[in-house]
Amino acid sequence: MQKVELRAVESGGYGLRTVFQSAGGKTRLIEGVLAPGGEIGPHTHPSGEDCGLVLSGVLTYWVSNSETISVLPGEVVFGWQQVIHGYRNDSSEPVHLLIFSTPGNNGLEYPGDGDAMVRHLPGAERKLTSAEGERQVCSEYSFFSFVTVGEAYADSGESLVVFVDSGEKRAYVFDREPVRLLPTRDKRLLRYAAQS
């Protein structure tokens, strides 16, 4: 298990940095900080996805070239393959993100909303909150859910599995290894699984 501390905001960092690359090279965890007024404009990925967990701040998330939704700390947004998405900070505070990107080189395009290759999904289906109980969201590349871990938690570890404690700004990464968590108290964690 690898523990990843997500502290870019505290260190005054801005921009993007890879904090973990899977052993098989297919998945990266990228810590990002968007300064006030910062933006990664609406785009798509022709051969992959990037999904983001807001760690702090309020994110304005593009769900088309003209429509956005607000995303609060602890919420996840989905930038599936061929679905328009983007990140913007309209607030006066930095937005701190953990981005899940898979597979390795997922490409980048800037199509119009009417482009035949664009898949359209309602904004409400584009995010997951911890308050949604045991809802699971998956794509052809990844799987997201929130889990409450109150006692020993184990999993087979056949792929990449990441647990994120957004309050503590810490990720626990299990890359092709058995998953074992031993919490000292109940914790609500984001569980992410993808190809290694």
UniProtKB/TrEMBL annotation:
<feature type="domain" description="Cupin type-2">
    <location>
        <begin position="33"/>
        <end position="99"/>
    </location>
</feature>
<dbReference type="Pfam" id="PF07883">
    <property type="entry name" value="Cupin_2"/>
</dbReference>
<dbReference type="InterPro" id="IPR013096">
    <property type="entry name" value="Cupin_2"/>
</dbReference>
<dbReference type="InterPro" id="IPR011051">
    <property type="entry name" value="RmlC_Cupin_sf"/>
</dbReference>
<dbReference type="InterPro" id="IPR014710">
    <property type="entry name" value="RmlC-like_jellyroll"/>
</dbReference>
<protein>
    <submittedName>
        <fullName>Cupin domain-containing protein</fullName>
    </submittedName>
</protein>
